[in-house]
Amino acid sequence: MRKVFFTALLSIILCSGAAALITGSVLFVMGFHIYEQEAKERLIGLVNTKAREVNLLLADAESVVDTLAGEVSQMLTYQEFPQSSPEYLLQKEILDRTILVVLEENEHLAGLFFSFNPRLYNGREEIWYIWEDGQVEKLDVAEEAGSWFLEGNPSVDYYYKAIANDSYWTGYTWEPDLKNNTGAYTATYGRAVYDRDGVLLGVAGADIYVDDLMDILKGISLKGSGIVALYDSNVQYVAGNIENGSLPFHPENLQKEIQISQEGAAAFDYTDAEGKEYLGAYSFFDNGWLPLILQPRSVVLEPFFNLKNIFIITLVFTATAIIIYIIIFSVTSVRTALKADEAKTIMLISQSRQAKVGEMVGNISH
Length: 366
What we know:
The chain has eight helices and twelve strands. By secondary structure, the chain is an alpha+beta fold.
């Protein structure tokens, strides 16, 4: 009786384990997809947080330039202050001092400038101040420039595209005169400035170091061999924590993801040429630039993969126990059946012998 009880109990336990594993497998697959989606949402959250920080920096630069443009518009009127007049020279000195003071109050900017309309003010008129070694210094590149606002020259896109669009953020530009003439990449915001009569006076603008934008992006907490990169509005590589040639991700892939998602921020799956899987996310800055983060899929989903290993071990252990139980139960059942059949056979033989003996005794009596 006790043996039957333990056999029944063990059967119930193993059947319950099998049912639990089947249910657990379904829930595990569902849970994996949910966890992966949450991981992607976390990546989007990370890149959006840094995008907001950068947007504050860009918005501040725009505010400084727009304010400066408004002051210039009120300060100068071309008809009243022709280039050769003493009044113009005085107003230019006031503007020079204004740009100096404004830049001193905005250390996050690389430079602040006003470029006069060369069709009105000949002689390469420009006021440009930059931060250099913790101090604001005036930069005069007019005499060194090989050409002056030659339309079609990419280095003066900030000027002509600001006029065409009223305001404009350039792509990244190499400025060889910055950082003690060692050069630096900048992003430039320009705004066209008109006087009260609607005459184009020039373009006011500000420069921001690309390195400053990257410093913000590098604040993203990345696990393992995570990658952070910055692309301009044309999806061309600007900067990153690894060189462009070492990136497993190429601009055309990012362009495809943007076309597919049609969203301001999105996450995506990516497999490089070597078969390594990544989870990625991108967002947009207000100037149209894109920050991108890539993390190995195995690193992002490591906690779930660890749980997966534990689940597989449990599954193998339970399946092995069930198989062993089935084998033992089958062998025991066969042996019991054979013994019962053997006993039945012996009983039938005994009954047959007894019948024959009875028949013989009856014959003898007659």
